[in-house]
Amino acid sequence: MEQNQPQFANDAERMAADIEQIHKLASQLLPFYSFITENNTLEEPLINAQLQMLIGVLHELHPADVALVLESLPPKERVLVWKLAIPEEDGDVLLEVSDAVRESLIESMDTQELVAAMEDMDADDLADLVEDLPDNVVQEVLKDLDEEERAQVQAALSYEDDQVGAIMNFDIVSIRADVTCEVVLRYLRRFDSLPDHTDKIFVVDDHDILQGVLPIRKLLVADPEDLVENIMAREVVKFRPSDDVVEAATAFERYDLITAPVVDENKKLIARLTVDEMVDVIREETEADMLNMAGLSDEEDLFAPVWDSVKNRWVWLAVNLVTAFVASRVIGAFEHSIAQIVALAALMPIVAGIGGNSGNQTITMIVRAMANAQISTAQAARLLKKEVGVALVNGLIWGSVMGLVSWLLYSSVGIGLVMVAAMTLNLLLAAVLGVLIPVAMEKLGCDPALGSSVLITAVTDSGGFLIFLGLATVFLL
Amino acid sequence: MEQNQPQFANDAERMAADIEQIHKLASQLLPFYSFITENNTLEEPLINAQLQMLIGVLHELHPADVALVLESLPPKERVLVWKLAIPEEDGDVLLEVSDAVRESLIESMDTQELVAAMEDMDADDLADLVEDLPDNVVQEVLKDLDEEERAQVQAALSYEDDQVGAIMNFDIVSIRADVTCEVVLRYLRRFDSLPDHTDKIFVVDDHDILQGVLPIRKLLVADPEDLVENIMAREVVKFRPSDDVVEAATAFERYDLITAPVVDENKKLIARLTVDEMVDVIREETEADMLNMAGLSDEEDLFAPVWDSVKNRWVWLAVNLVTAFVASRVIGAFEHSIAQIVALAALMPIVAGIGGNSGNQTITMIVRAMANAQISTAQAARLLKKEVGVALVNGLIWGSVMGLVSWLLYSSVGIGLVMVAAMTLNLLLAAVLGVLIPVAMEKLGCDPALGSSVLITAVTDSGGFLIFLGLATVFLL
C-alpha cells in the first residue's frame, strides 16, 4: 500500500478520500447500472469516463480496503461497485467483509462467479465462507479439492464459530529436531513461498507430535552447524481445536504471539493460529460487548434495509417495553399518593435516572473486567463491597444536593429528606445489581454483556419509582 | 508458557487457577506482610511454607501474567505480591499493567528498585514509563544511557500518547539494496538476537532513506545469489511519527501487518511499529468507546479506593443530575395536567424509556461505525434516513401495542391514541439525535463516544415527557 498520492499525509486520509470519491462516482453511475456491458464499459463517453475512473480507483485498492468501501455503501451502490471489483480478488474481499454484507454480496453473484472466487482458497478460509454459499456452489467447490484439503475443510466445519478449530490454518511448515540449521535453511529454500506470518517453524517427531518451535529469529542468528533441538524453544503456548477463540486471542495478546501451534489430544500438530485472525477476534469481541450491552445483535449492516434493522432490534425493545410497563404499574400503584402530592411525579424520574446512569457505569466496568478475565467469584464479593461504597458516597452527596433543591423548590423539608433517602437507596440498588447481573449471567453461561444495559435500567427504573413513591407515601401522607 | 500442569485443558483455565491460588495465598499472608525478611522468608515455618508456595507460583508466570494477577488484586495484596515478584522482570510487568495500577506499584518501590527495573529497557518502553517515575529516578536512569538512547527517549517523549512517535520502537535491522541474500544472511548471523517480531528487514540507501522492505519469508526462499533489490517489496505501508496510533492500528489490522517502518518527512527510516503494540491500541480504543459511552474515564483500577472511583465517575453523574433536573422541570410544567389525569404520571416513563433504549441502540451503532471509519458526512444523511425509517416502524408497532394496553387499562381511547403518537414521536427524536449527537461531537473534535449514552438518554427523557404530557394536555384536557 504505497501512498502513491503524495498529497495525503497518511494512509487513513488517503482511504477516506478514496471512499468519498467511490461513493460519489457510484451514486452518479447508479442510473446506468443495467447498461454496463460485460467488459465493464458504457456507450455514452462522458459516463463511461466516470465508470473507468471508478474502476481505476477500485483496482488500486487492497482487498481489505475494497471490503471497507463495500461496507460503507448503501445496498444498490454496493452491488454496482462489487460488480466492478477485480474478480480474482473476490474471494479475499468476501473474507474481509462483515457477515451481513457478505450475504448481500453473495446474493448478487451467479454460481460461476462464486466457484471462480473460491478457487485457490485455503481450507480454513473456504470453511468460513461455506455456510454462506448456496449448496450447488459448495458441491462444485469441494469437488475441485484434493482429499487432504477436503478433509481440512470438513475439520474446520466441524467446530463452532467460537472455537479455535474454526479459524485455525493448515498452512504449516514443520521440521525434525535432529537436523542442523543449515539443513533447515536448505529445506525452506525449496518452498516457492512460506506461509503468511511465519515467525516460527514447528518441530515434530516421526509421528507429527509437537516437540517445540524454532523461531525464525533464532534460526537466522544460529550457527549453521547447530542442531535444531539445541536451539528450539520447548515451552510453547499451544492450543486445542476445541479451545475458545477469545481465550486464544487473549493469550496471543498477553504473550505477544504471531503464530501458535494447534495440537490434538495426543499433541499431534494439526494446524496453527495466526495473529491477524486474533486481532479480528479481539476487535469483534470488544465491539460485540458494546453492542450487546445496548441490546443489539453484533452483526448489523449499517445500511441494512429498514426491515432488517427492525428485526435486529425488536427483541430488546420488546424486553424494554415489558420492563417499562412494570415500572409504569409500580407508579400506577401509587396514583393515590401522586394525586395528593403532584410534585412526586416530577421528582420521581430524577431518582430513576441517576440510578440508571450509575448502574450503567458499574455494569460497564464489570463487563469489561470479565472480558479481560480479571474477575473470579471471590473477587465479585470484594467488588460488590467497593461499588456499594461508591454508591453510598455518591448517594449522600448528590442525594443531598437534589434534596436541597427539592426542598427549596417545593418548600417542603419532607420532600427533600425523602429525595435524599430515595436517591441513596436507588444508587445502592444500582451498585448491587450492576455487579450481580453480569456475575449471574456468567454463572448461567450467558454472555454477561447481553442486554445488561437494558436490564440494569429496568431495575433502577422500577426500583427507583418504588423506593421514592413508597417512602413518600409512608412519610409524607 | 508450557502447560506444565496436564490437568488444565488450556492456558485460560491454568491462568484462572493460578490467579485464584495467588489471591488466596496473598490474603492469608497479608497479616504477616511486615515480617517478611529481605530474602523473602518468614520465621514461622507453616506460614513460610505458604510464602514459598506463593513465590513459587509467581515465579513460574510470564510477566504479562504477573501484570494480570496484580490488576486483579486489591491494593494491599497487590503490594505484597509485587514485593515477591522476580525483580529482573519488574520493568516488563510495569509496562504491561494499566496506568492506574502502575502508579500504585511505582509508589510502593524505592529509588534503587526503580532504577534497577529500568535497566536494559528499550528507549520506547522507557519513554512510556518516564512520566510515571519520580524525577530523581528519571535523572538516574537517563544518566546511564548512551547518547543515541537518550536521544531516542527524548524523541519518544516529544510525541503525544496518541501519536505513532510515542509507541514506535527503535530496534531496527536495516540493509542496503545492492547486496545479495547470502550477504544478508551472513550479516544477520552476526547479531546475538534479532529484534522481537522481525518479519521484515528494512532496505535503506546511504542516507538511511527507506527504499523498500525485505520480508524474511522471501529471504528464506530466495536464491542466495539474488540481489536484495530484486526481491524486496517497494510498496510499503509506512507511518510518520505524527500519525494517529488508532489509524495506524487500523492499517495493521486491514493489511495484516506484523511490523511497519516509521519514517520522517524525508522518508528517512527512524523506527518501526510492531503488531503487539497495535493489538493493545485496538483493545484500548474499543474499550475506551464502551466506557466513554457510559460516562467513565477509560482508566479505572477495578479495585481503586472508593474515593478514586467516586472522582472518576462524578462528572457524568453530575451531568446526568442536571439533565434529570431538566426532565423533572418539564414534568413540573405539566403538574396541572397530571393532577387532573393521574394516569399520565404512570404512563410517561414508558414513552421516555423506550426512546432511551432505542436511542442507545442507534448511537451505539453509529459510534462503532465511526470508530471503524465507515461514516463520511454524506453517509450521515443516508443513515439518518434509515434510522428514521426504523424508528417510524418501531414507533407504530410498539406504540400501537402500548396504546392498546393503555386504552384497556384506563378505558380511554384518548389516552391510547396519545400514547401511540407520543411513542412514535419520541422514537423519531431518539433516531434523529442518535445520529446527530455523535456526528456533531466528531465535527467539534470531541470523541463521539464520550458520554453519548448519557446525552441521548437526557434528550429522550425530557423530550419524551414533553411530547407525551404536551399531547395529553392539548387533546385530553
Structure description:
Two copies of one chain form a homodimer. The first copy, chain A, is mainly alpha-helical. Chain A folds into three domains: 7-157, Alpha Horseshoe (MgtE N-terminal fold), CATH 1.25.60; 174-274, CBS-domain (Roll), CATH 3.10.580; 306-476, SLC41 divalent cation transporters, integral membrane domain (Tetracycline Repressor, domain 2, Orthogonal Bundle). Chain A is 65% helix and 5% strand. The first copy, chain A, has 22 helices and five strands. In chain A, the strands form two sheets. Chain A has a three-stranded mixed sheet. In chain A, strand 4 (259-263) and strand 5 form a beta hairpin. The first copy, chain A, is globular, with a radius of gyration of 30 Å. The model of chain A is unreliable at 1-7 (pLDDT under 50). Chains A and B meet through helix 1, helix 3, helix 12, helix 13 and helix 15 of A and helix 1, helix 3, helix 12, helix 13 and helix 15 of B.
